[in-house]
Amino acid sequence: IVVTGSDDHLWKMWALPDGNVLMTGEGHTDWLSGCCFHPSGTQLVTSSGDATVRIWDFSKRGCILTLEGHAHAVWDCSWHSCGDFVASASMDNTSKIWDVNSERCRYTMCGHKGSVNSIEFLPFSNTVLTSSADKTLSLWDART
């Protein structure tokens, strides 16, 4: 499976090796910057220049949740290995941990002096790694 974005703010999921389109997502209003499969493989999270993070459900064939709260473009997104939390990294110099079940931001992590360009959970832990345009990496405890 391959996920691609396009200039018209759509993403497509392609099956390999036959090249059939499995699903198309429409909803972001600006460029797509990141995507990550849910640990179970049933959902996808995407990030965008429209400052939102969206969660897509494959069985419902559409967006089931839009997370809003960043002030600028969101560069990256990542699922926690339990599947209940999403992390996002933004041009607004912050990263956020979102609780998918309550549909709200649990934590906002501040401290970088530049755009936060990538974010990743350490598997099976509460540790989050961010990288920034300020030329630093930061490790965060997502619980505090």
From TrEMBL:
One GO biological process term: axoneme assembly
Protein name as annotated: Sperm-associated antigen 16 protein
Repeat listed as a keyword: yes
Keywords in alphabetical order: Repeat, WD repeat
One GO CC term on file: axonemal central apparatus
Classification via PANTHER family: SPERM-ASSOCIATED ANTIGEN 16 PROTEIN (PTHR14604:SF3), WD40 REPEAT PF20 (PTHR14604)
Each WD repeat, start to end: 25-66, 67-108, 109-144
Superkingdom in the source lineage: Eukaryota
Pfam family, one: WD40
